Every structure is written in structure tokens, then in C-alpha cells.
Amino acid sequence: MIYLDNAATTYPKPQIVIEEMSKCLKSYCANAGRSAHSLAIKTAEKIFEARQVISDFFGADEDNIVFTYNATYALNMAIKSLINDEAHILISDIEHNAVLRPIHSICTKTKNTYDIFDTNGSDEEIINNIKGKITSKTSMIVCNFVSNICSRRLPIKEIGEICKKNNIIFIVDGSQGAGHYNINVKESNINALCLPGHKGLYGPQGTGIVIFNNVSPRQYIEGGTGINSLELEMPKILPERLEAGTLSAPSIIGLLEGVKWLKTLNVDKIRSHEEDLYLHFKKYISTNDNYIIYESNFYPGNTICFNSKFLTSNIVAKELNDRGICVRSGQHCSPLAHKTLGTRADGAVRISFSVFNTRNDVIELIEALDGISIKHKKKNRNLI
Amino acid sequence: MYIASFKTMTHAIKGKNSLLKNKIEADIVKLDPNFTDKGCSYGVQFNHYNLTYIYQIFNENKVKYVQIKKV
Lengths: 384, 71
What we know:
The structure holds two protein chains of two kinds.
Chain A: E1 2-3, H1 15-27, H2 38-57, E2 65-68, H3 71-82, E3 88-92, H4 97-109, E4 113-117, H5 123-133, E5 138-144, H6 156-166, E6 169-173, E7 192-196, E8 208-212, H7 249-265, H8 267-285, E9 291-293, E10 303-308, H9 313-322, E11 325-326, E12 328-330, H10 335-341, E13 348-352, H11 359-376
Parallel strand pairs in A: 1-11, 3-4, 3-5, 5-6, 6-7
Antiparallel strand pairs in A: 2-8, 7-8, 9-10, 10-13, 12-13
Helix pairs in contact in A: 1-7, 2-7, 3-4, 8-11
Chain B: E1 2-6, H1 9-21, E2 26-31, E3 41-46, H2 51-60, E4 65-70
Antiparallel strand pairs in B: 1-3, 1-4, 2-3
């Protein structure tokens, strides 16, 4: 199969990730921080190594690396542990439901309010849009770095500067940016960077991270921490303050190896490779009368969405699957982003590349789409 | 022999690593519940004559210890 659904989760994983996870499960996978025998200490030390490597990769302090189960959990934790009462929140118009839903839920149940800023335009226009929406009560901005349905990306460094000047907490959903672009939380004034371990960081599913910077998150979860058990309250310091229960050691060790592997490859080279594939495919799809795309003026990236003029996105995805190509169709858990891009009620077909994809994958995709058009065009159903 | 106690496992490991980096042998140990009066806890066991130097190492490496006791 040709796998082009890397925005959902990267596949395959690097061999070293699989090997080290397997080694952990076979040789030492004890419960970190609960016992003092050699296997538990070794497991705890590997998890600590993961914090060190990840903090170095993102320009953060190792104490501020909090492990979660995915980016959605990370975003919920960051938003709900940092939000103020009666706050005004800004989000972008291309957010995933992992941002939109918790914000919407908070604002329907409390006196908090939120507004959406426009991301269509240059970086300067986006910044002006944000500035235009900031009020005296604005205390949080939550936005993604890169969209999960197209290559649109936001000027997070400049947004971070605005937040710092205005004493606004800045939370970034780095789900689609991490591993494709260099992100430094301190340089970009990001207060909480929320990441999945299983996408651009090439770790396994079941891993996520919140990287805090210059903030003191409130308690979010309570439970066993393996230390100071007689105290009724959770530890006051990170990361254990926000981690309760057993961590998934083999998953975190897989994530550690994924990040180490990325560092050997170099993020800039990965991005360059993916952009080459993106541009190659975009050249075809943007000039093919049977298809429409929704992102003519964006930066190149690794994700692109389009539709057939004659078939629903689900049918195109199924036809591609029948031809050995994996893609995702529909709303991609981002109805707000789809509405902003102006796709259809059935969403769109999304292609997302990884470092493992090749030019040949793009050639086969193009041939498959040509075949699908020829097969179905005679039905002459225009769905635009 | 001394034991430094810590509030979290993360800082116990940081403590151990910072001592090892300075060529001081150190091991993580589980402490008796009455060591800190807070229940289960972890410490780092080491043997070094100069506690001032140990405090300096911990401070330079931002290791948050609770106390250091002779055992």
C-alpha cells in the first residue's frame, strides 16, 4: 500500500522505534516511579531521557515536559489548566476540533467568551486580524501552527510576541508542525506547546506531550504518583504535578527514539523532501479539470486537500484504497477549517506526505486519480 | 553515606545524573516512609565528604532536593 495519510498518523515508523519498544517490552518494562528495583529504575531513567531529548528538541526545560496520551488530551490539559475566569479567548478559523470543542464547551458553561480570527492572507494581515480582535479581557490565544487539511501555517513567532506584550497566554497546537518545522518554545514565547507523539515525531500512538514555558498550570488530574503518598495533594512541581497513574513506558521510549531519529535526519531536510512531493502533486491537481483544490496561494507543505468534480470525497478515497493508496476523506475533525477553505458538505480528500514517501508514490497517485476520472466521468455528475 | 531525598522521581534522577556527571557514585533508592513523613519517596544515596560541594552541584543543575541526611 502507498500510505498518504500521515496527517492522521505517520506510517511506517522508523525501525529503531519498533526495535527499542520491543526491547523495552521484552527486557525491562516495569512501572517507572513505583518500585525501586533495577527494572523500575531503568524504565524511569529512560522516561527521563525522553524528557531531556524532547526538551532539547523544542528549546524547553526538561521539567516542563508533561506526557499525555495524544495531542487532544494535551490541548485539553493546557487550555483548562491555564484559563482564567471570565476570559476572552481567540482561536483561528482553521482549528481542529481538539481546540474548538474544549473552547466552545468552556464558553457555553462559564462566562468565558471566544472569537475567531481570520487566517486568509499574509502573515502581516493575520497579525493585524489578531490585533483587531484583542480586547482588554483577552487572556488566551490558542491556534495551530500548521493546518491539518492544507499547508496554511500561522506566524507563531509573531503571535507569540503579541501575546508576550499583552500578557496573553499562548497555546499552540503543534500537531502538524512538529517534526516538519523547527519549533522553539522560548524563542516563540509559547506558553504551552501541545503535540502528538505519533505524527511528525514518528513515535507510536498513545503518546502526546504538553511543553509548558513560563506558566504555572493549575491541577488537572489527581491520582497516584509513586511518591509522597501520604500527602493528599499532588506534587507541586512539574512534570509529576500533571502526571498521575502509570505512564506508557514502551510508548514513551518509542517516542524518544522517534525524536532521536528525526534529529539524525534533520527537520529542514525532511521538510524540503515533503515540499518537493507536495509541489509535484499540486502541479498535477491544480491543472486537472476533473479536480478542484482549495489552497492556491499557501506556502508549500506536506498536506493538500482536493475534490473530484464528479464524485464525493468518500468515493474517491475508496477508489484510491482499491488501487492500493491510503488517504483520508471527509471533514478531518476540522469542520471549521473546511468551512474556511470553502470545501463541500462531504469535506474533501486529503493527501499528506511523510519522509517515507517518494516521487514514485506521487506518480502512482496521479495515475490512480486519472484512472478514477476516466472511470467515473461518464456519469457526468457535477458536484461542485 | 548520605541520602538526598526528593519530591519527585524526575528530580531524583536529575540528582543522580548530576552527581554521576561529577564522578560521584550515586544510586536511586526507595526511602522508608518515615524518612520524610510523607509516605513513599525516593532518594539518591552517595558517599562524599564535602556536602557543600554536593549542594553546589544540585543548585547548578537545578535539582530540587528536599533534604540531605547522613545515614
